[in-house]
Amino acid sequence: MKGVHTYSEQELVEALKQRDGKAFGYLYDHYSAALNGVIMDILQDEESSIDVLQEVFIKIWKQIEQYDPVRGRLFTWMFNIARNAAIDATRKKEWQNQKRSSSVNDYTSLADRAFNPAEDTGLRKIVQSLKAEHKVLIELSYFQGYTQEEIAEMLKLPLGTVKTRLRAAILQLKKQMS
User: Fold this and answer.
1) What pTM was estimated for this model as a whole?
2) How far apart are CA 66 and CA 13, in angstroms?
3) pLDDT tens digits for range 5-18
4) Domain layout of the chain by residue ranges
5) How far apart are CA 168 and CA 67, in angstroms?
6) Which of 31, 76, 165, 171 lies 20 to 30 Å from 105 when distance is taken between CA atoms?
């Protein structure tokens, strides 16, 4: 049986800087459990922790040149990378949840604000008579220039629904203009 190679911290850092795959495997085998523990403490979600741990090791591999032994031990440097990555993941998740919770109602006031009483004639006046869900789509699409894909993302609606409602809104406008 072949003996397992062990590294001193300095040898490990040097090997990593030389892009030694075996040294990286050693690093992962000896430090992943501890770093995953740090990440799990923050995220409290095993699946997300595994994803973040992978990102952490990629970052370590790419940024090993930035490690400075004068400023601290290798584990401390990796610990900080893991902690910061977990905090960033938490912030990103909170931001996505906040973004998801916005609804069409958040955008209906947009169409009302965009209406200018001085433009009481013409298309904008007719648009104001549409249902709120249609008014918002016309406002975002034709007056503000968003694409259907952007509107679907903004309103958290399927693209097909945006297209169907926009078509229905245009048909309503056509009918009212005739």
Assistant:
1) 0.53
2) 11
3) 788 989 999 999 99
4) 9-101, 104-177
5) 59
6) 171
